[in-house]
Each structure stands twice: as C-alpha cells, then as structure tokens.
Amino acid sequence: MKNNYKYKKENYNFWVNRLKKNENLVCTNDILLDRIEEDQIINRINNNKTILELGCGNGLLLKRLIKNRKIKKYYGTDFVKELIDICIKKYKSKKINFQTLDMTLIDKNTFKTKFDYIVTKRAIQNVLDTKLQLKTIDDVGYFLKKNGKMILVESSINAQNNINKLRKKFHLTKIIPPFHNLFFNDKKVRMYHFRNVKLVKIDNFSSSFYFTSRIIYAMYSKIFLRKKPFYNHPLNMIATMLDAKLIKEDFSQIKTYIFKKIDRKK
After folding, report:
1. In the CATH hierarchy, which fold is given to the domain comprising 8-156+180-206+254-261?
2. What pTM was computed for the model?
3. Whole-angstrom Cα distance, residue 158 to residue 186?
4. What is the mean pLDDT of the segment spanning 220-235?
5. Crossing angle of helices 81-90/8-21, nearest 10°?
6. CA separation for the pair 105, 133 (Å, rounded)
C-alpha cells in the first residue's frame, strides 16, 4: 500500500540534500526558533516514559531529550532512509530504536507497543494533503497510552496569513511556505472527528517571536539596515526571550497541537 501524496519524491530528495549541506541544520536554518520548538516538547515530557517520534530526522531532538530527561524507551521513525541510517550509527542503546517508515502508512499493526508520548516537530506538515495529515494524526493516536499525550509542533497557515496581512501593510514581501510543506489549517484540525485522540489545546507559543522577527526586525532591516534579515540577529535573540502571551493576536506560525487519548469506555 502506498500514499503517493503530492511531491512525495521531491520531498524525500529535499531532505537528503539538506543533510548533505549541514546535518545540524536539517530541520530549519533558524537555530534560535528551533531551540524553543524543541523546548515545547521537552518541557512537556516527564522522566522514565516511552516516546514515539514521527519524523525524527537525524536525531537532533533526541540529542536534547537524552540530556534533559531520563528516557524509558524511545522509538524514532522517518521516511528518509539516509536520516535513519545516521541515527542508527549515532545512538547505540537498547532503549533507543529507529525505523524507516512513511507515517501515512501507519495502521494498527505498525507497532507492537503503545507510548506515553507521541511527538513531532515540523513533520506532519510535509504531507501535502490535509485529509491525510488528519488521518495520520488519528491513526498514530491508536498507539497512545490511556493517559498519554500527543505533542505536535507544526506550522499554521492561519497564523502565517495574519503575518502576511501585516507585512503587506508595511510593504514587506509575502512569506510563502516551502514547496514541501502544507501548513495546518487550525479550523480543520479543530473540526475533524478523531476516533483515537482528542484535541486538548493549540498553544500559540511563538506569536511574540514571529511578530518581533518577521514584522519588527523585517521592517528595521528594510528601512534602516537596507539589507536582508539574518536568523542570528540580536533582535531575533531578544524575540526568543519574550513572553509568549505578550502579543495577543495570532502570529504563531509554529504552534503546539496537544492531543490526549480518547477513553472509549465513556
């Protein structure tokens, strides 16, 4: 069985090429933002728990998880074999396992166990079909333990639209998602009838960051610096320190979608 969603092959090749350029920047060039995205997951995980990561890449999140948490068992999957090969060479532990796997093909027979946490970081957005994205969330949710938690750090088209409306007002260029991404539609996530999990919260944790970085700093670069913005500018560093609740409007292009297991006995 295959789910050949749009640009699947091109998507695969994109990640292989990213890996060749710099294996520390596989997920994103924005290292500052990458750190707070990882924190969204790490800070929600307790010690001595089992973790399933979809789209584990070359194990960058796992590297920080090992430093900050005691892991009972970790299982990482990615549909790019080259990334999984690196993980297998890098991490030698009976507690840690990897598998080359297309997340859209997960069914009730995929894993032999259930997990305390199922996590992603900019992974499901690589599936360029909204219905398939939502089905994948539901299907993998089958493997969540009774009191388990699903923590998905993914991009939101709703927030990006809000950012672009304001950028247009200040004559800044429109931000367009990369060809290999389909950002989550928050309304469709909220309205979808999940069988295995229930949406608990959408955390707009990066609104302050994106407002400062993609609006304020972008204007400053254009008007005063007269050059293109770069990720490690001090203003972006300050943006990572701001309270997430400082900006009320939704500019959180990256969000944390939190799900819990549905108790079928009720």
Report:
1. Rossmann fold (3.40.50)
2. 0.95
3. 7
4. 94
5. 40
6. 11
